[in-house]
């Protein structure tokens, strides 16, 4: 999750916020973070009243996918192959995505798999060899290229959360285009991210990331050749008199 300290807004006519992104700075920040759930969520669960943030987040994502008929409950369809961008230590991989996999697909190719992309090796070490985890790409989203071998399934679901702020707009467009090229016929791409309160783009010096406004997300999706088929704000996050999380929005995208 992108940090919320040291944020300054993009002013009209000024340099675009994403021009300030430094890959090296961002990687250094995440290398300094603990390889656990608390580290992935920027220390938020340690604050009084915020211990259940991850649980609430995962349930919101589960509910969102169910609206597209995807889930582990009876009557919902499971996935043969999933891609997770920015997997971290596998909070979402193990807390949501692996439960969506088929046990054995109809082509007899064995159980479904979640392929993960994550540039920090100490994070991916937590996922190596885990049940349901397929290919592990230790690289940034801007470097990842889909590998769909002959006879292999394309992705039924691509899930990317709390990490695209480390990509420039141009890199994000290119990443989404690559995801689109690897998407199954009825596949779904989901971006779940912080959004700014006032609609402008904001740069965070702490982890060298950008929190985008709604207008920027819409431009990016359009340039990538994707349509927003549904968008919802995450509900139920805790807040206190002195602390409130940024708005988090889920975008379901299709070609």
UniProtKB/TrEMBL annotation:
S-adenosyl-L-methionine binds at residues 86, 91, 161. GO terms for biological process: methylation. It comes from the Eukaryota. Its EC number is 2.1.1.244. GO terms for cellular component: cytoplasm. It is an enzyme of class 2 (transferase). SUPFAM superfamilies: S-adenosyl-L-methionine-dependent methyltransferases. Keywords: Methyltransferase, S-adenosyl-L-methionine, Transferase. GO terms for molecular function: N-terminal protein N-methyltransferase activity. The keyword Methyltransferase applies. It catalyses: N-terminal L-alanyl-L-prolyl-L-lysyl-[protein] + 3 S-adenosyl-L-methionine = N-terminal N,N,N-trimethyl-L-alanyl-L-prolyl-L-lysyl-[protein] + 3 S-adenosyl-L-homocysteine + 3 H(+); N-terminal L-seryl-L-prolyl-L-lysyl-[protein] + 3 S-adenosyl-L-methionine = N-terminal N,N,N-trimethyl-L-seryl-L-prolyl-L-lysyl-[protein] + 3 S-adenosyl-L-homocysteine + 3 H(+); N-terminal L-prolyl-L-prolyl-L-lysyl-[protein] + 2 S-adenosyl-L-methionine = N-terminal N,N-dimethyl-L-prolyl-L-prolyl-L-lysyl-[protein] + 2 S-adenosyl-L-homocysteine + 2 H(+). Pfam families: Methyltransf_PK. CDD domains: AdoMet_MTases. Belongs to the methyltransferase superfamily. NTM1 family. PANTHER family: AD-003 - RELATED, ALPHA N-TERMINAL PROTEIN METHYLTRANSFERASE 1. This is Alpha N-terminal protein methyltransferase 1. It comes from Neurospora hispaniola.
């Amino acid at each position: 999750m992108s940090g919320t300290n040291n944020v300054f807004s993009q002013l009209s006519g000024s340099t675009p916020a994403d021009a300030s992104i430094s890959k090296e700075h961002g990687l250094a920040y995440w290398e300094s973070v603990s390889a656990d759930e608390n580290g992935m969520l920027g220390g938020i669960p340690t604050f009084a009243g915020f211990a259940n943030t991850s649980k609430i987040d995962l349930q919101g994502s589960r509910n969102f996918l169910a609206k597209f008929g995807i889930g582990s409950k009876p009557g919902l369809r499971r996935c043969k192959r999933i891609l997770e961008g920015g997997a971290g230590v596998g909070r979402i991989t193990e807390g949501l995505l692996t439960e969506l996999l088929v046990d054995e697909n109809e082509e007899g190719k064995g159980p479904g798999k979640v392929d993960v992309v994550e540039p920090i090796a100490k994070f991916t070490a937590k996922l190596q060899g885990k049940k349901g985890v397929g290919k592990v790409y230790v690289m940034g989203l801007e470097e990842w290229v889909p590998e769909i071998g002959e006879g292999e399934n394309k992705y039924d679901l691509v899930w990317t959360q709390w990490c695209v702020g480390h990509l420039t707009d141009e890199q994000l467009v290119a990443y989404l285009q690559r995801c689109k090229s690897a998407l199954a016929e009825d596949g779904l791409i989901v971006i779940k991210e912080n959004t700014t309160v006032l609609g402008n783009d904001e740069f965070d010096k702490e982890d060298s990331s950008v929190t985008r406004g709604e207008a920027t997300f819409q431009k990016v999706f359009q340039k990538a050749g994707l349509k927003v088929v549904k968008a919802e704000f995450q509900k139920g996050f805790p807040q206190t008199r002195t602390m409130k999380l940024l708005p988090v929005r889920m975008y379901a995208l299709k070609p």
